[in-house]
Structures are given as structure tokens and as C-alpha cells.
Amino acid sequence: MYSAPLLYTSLGGVLSENSGVVNIGLEGMMTIGAFAGAAVAYFTQNPWIGFVAAAIAGGLLALLHAVACVTFTADHVVSGIAINFIGPGLALFLTKIFFDGAAMTIPLDLDHKIPRPLNGFFSSISVSNDILKEIVGTLDSIFNQYATVYIAFILVFVIWFVLYKTKIGLRIRSVGEHPRAADTLGINVYAVKYLAVILSGVLAGLGGAAMSIAVVSNFRAALISGQGFIALAAMIFGKWRPQGAMWGCLLFGAAQGLSIYLGGTTLGISSQLLAMLPYIITLIVLMLFVGESNGPAANGQPYEKNQA
Questions:
Q1: Sequence-ordered strand ranges (E) for the chain
Q2: Is the pLDDT of residue 151 over 80?
Q3: Taking the model in full, what pTM does it have?
Q4: Distance CA 9, CA 3 (A)
């Protein structure tokens, strides 16, 4: 459940950076997606419409990043930092406008969250054996997830297939490795980069919505607090590959789940320490297990068609 929002966002980073555009603005895109998803779901009373709106909002914010980095060859990191200011700021501003300047929270009716498609499926199976009952109960707890979780894991396969088994995926990777060589072969480098960056925003927006209209049932100012950066770390952990990013997101999602689990025990661990746990584990993993990671060769480098 906690891995799914990270997974959407990390897959967005995989697409963008494989095309050669560094996208540290995932946090801002995730935040605007969380707001748009919650706000549209609130007014329409339909979480799926909110989910689509989140994708559109994230894609529009990513378009700004693409214009800055691809068309105007701005520094990718600086543009990403700007996006991380624009996303939360715009979300809070629009919250004040649409909700009469009230508290920075958009509450959602629990009946209008993303559904759990397998809720009660295994528990409805009638078994008499105690061991089978235990197995059925375990399966019910494992697979009783929001639909956004299943969509996220399906997208891992889809993006892997697109990147490594299709012509457009080959173009995305060639533009990220050697854009000038790709240009000489007739590939529209700018169009490919625009497509990849916008799709990264779409996915990050879906990640934000997976948090606001699935994991929780509201949007608030601190809902997306560093999760875009954790998703970025998962992408690096996964060596810029969809399947690797998935394992990284599962690890960091488990860390977040562990902090929440420990908070419900009688161990008396400080809530501030528990809140730090996912970020500490992220840093430890990056230091100990990632080593020297090298992304696409032209990642972060501006490309101008007419320059030698």
C-alpha cells in the first residue's frame, strides 16, 4: 500500500531520466497530483475521475519542466527545484480558493476512496481445516489492496516492455545515451524528451493521487513530505530500470509501513524518530548498497540541435 505511490512516481523518473532529462521535480508533481485527485474526487464523488485529473495535473506541471529544460536548455536541477516550489504552493493556493480559505485539508468520504477489488474475496471461501483457514486469512490480508496497487505493478511490466521491446522505447533510451547520434538517424530528440518528461509528470500525479484518494482520504499540506525524493532514490537504487525501481519502492514502502506499525506498539519509541525511519533507511540503502550508479550517458546534459 505504501509502496504504490512511490512506484508510480519512481517509474515516472525512470522514463524522464532514460530520455536524458533529470527530474527532481517529482515531489512537486506528486503534490499537485495529490491535490487535483482529492479535489476532483471531492466534487465529483468519483475517485476514478479524480485519479485521471491527477494525471493531467502532474502532466501539465511536467510540461513546464520540459519547456525549461528541453526548449530553453535550463539547468535540470534548478528547474526541478522550481517545480518543487510551484507544485505545493499552487496546491495550497487552490485549496484556499476552492474551499473558502478554510483549513488546508480536503476531506474525502470513505465511500469515495479508490476501491479494494479483492476485499473479502478470500475470506468468503469456506474451509473447515484450521491450516487452510490460516492460509486463506493470510491471502486475504496480502491481496486486500487498493486498485491503485495492482495498477502500479502492472505499469512496471508495461514500462519495461515499452522501454526494452518497442521502437519508442529504443528511441527514448538512445536520446538519453547519445542525442546527437539519435538526431542523425532522423529521431526528433525534442519530441521524445517532451513525451518522456510529460509522462513522468503523469505518473507522478498518479502517485500523489494514490496517496490522497487511496492510502488516506484527504489532501493536506504535509501529505507528500519527501516521498518524491524517496521515489527518486528508488529509481537510482534500481539503476534506472523499472523492475529495479519496483524493488526499491517495495523496500522504502516497507520502511514506511514499519514506522507506522512500531508507532502502534507499546515500545514507546518517539514519534519524531519513527517519522525519520523511512528517510534514514533510504540514506543507508543508498550508501551501502547502491555504490557508484551511472545513469544514461547524456542525462542532465542540455541538447541544442544546431550545435556541434
A1: 105-107, 218-220
A2: yes
A3: 0.91
A4: 10
